[in-house]
Write a structure and sequence with these properties.
The chain contains five helices and eleven strands; from the N terminus they run E-E-H-E-E-E-E-E-H-E-H-E-E-H-E-H. With 254 residues, it is α+β, with helices and mostly antiparallel strands. The chain has one domain: Cyclophilin-like (Cyclophilin), CATH 2.40.100. It has an eight-stranded antiparallel β-barrel with strand order 1-2-8-6-7-4-3-11. It has a two-stranded antiparallel ribbon with strand order 9-10. The longest helix has 12 residues. The radius of gyration is 17 Å and the shape is globular.
């Protein structure tokens, strides 16, 4: 699976990066990501804290905006709605070195606060650089999907949604029924994130695109929810989705 680079356009950068490789093992298949631990060290260190503490085990992809982003790292299903929240290690300093092009993973954060990223991240489903490279101080890209891993990401991105939550085997009729909630079989779970290679030269042949749009004088436009556009939610997930959108946390994972 992990044998070819995802896109020639993606590799048109001016500098190489050094990285650790991790594998996302999901209910829809596995894919690998090179983390830029040499050039975005604080962000990668923050991400690896959650990996090493197993806090990403069984988290779900809780937000899908088709043609924009696929987001996770914040919530998991404990047998009932509302979802439980991943316990945070605290915020991390923004490191907007690389561009939010297709196939990259970047940190999610709150509106108007460039240094508010904690556990949540998102995969860029297309080139979002014109927007996300400058918005809210720039969104920190800290890795890229390698090999044919975007096949799995795109597979998830093509699933049906209830509101903004990607689900399997959960019809719009069920979504509109306030008496029916999705269960473990419906959510797209990340079973684990594991280290495949922790050598510091695993990305020596990659050239991630630099963020050249962000300037020191660029005003902060806020809108850290990365919201491109989204359909209105309805049915039994309505309250849940509104709470997720507001960044509210519920039961915290220990």
């Amino acid at each position: 699976m992990i044998k070819h680079l995802i896109s020639a356009a993606f590799l048109l950068g001016s500098s190489s990066a050094m990285a650790t490789i991790v594998e996302f093992q999901t209910s829809q298949g596995s894919f690998q990501v090179n983390l830029f631990d040499q050039t975005t060290p604080k962000t990668v260190e923050n991400f690896m804290k959650y990996v090493n503490a197993d806090r990403y085990q069984d988290v779900i992809f809780h937000r899908l905006e088709p043609g924009f982003v696929l987001q996770g790292g914040g919530f998991f299903y404990e047998g009932s709605i509302p979802l439980s929240a991943v316990e945070s290690f605290g915020s991390v300093e923004n490191e907007p070195v690389y561009s939010n092009v297709r196939g990259t993973i970047a940190m999610a954060k709150f509106d108007g606060d460039p240094d508010s990223a904690t556990s949540q991240w998102f995969f860029n489903l297309k080139d979002n650089s014109a927007n996300l490279d400058v918005q809210n101080g720039g969104f920190t890209v800290f890795g890229q999907v390698i090999g044919d891993g975007m096949d799995i990401v795109d597979k998830i991105a093509n699933l049906e949604r209830c509101g903004s939550v990607p689900l399997v085997d959960f019809s719009q009729q069920k979504c509109n029924d306030q008496q029916i909630n999705p269960d473990e079989s419906n959510f797209i779970a990340i079973n684990s994130v594991t280290i495949i290679d922790n050598s510091n030269n695993t990305a020596s042949d990659l050239s991630p695109v630099k963020n050249t749009l962000l300037k020191p004088t660029t005003p902060d436009t806020g809108n850290g929810n990365n919201n491109n556009s989204s359909d209105s939610s309805s049915g039994s997930l309505f309250s849940l989705l509104m709470m997720l959108g507001a960044g509210l946390f519920f039961r915290r994972r220990r």
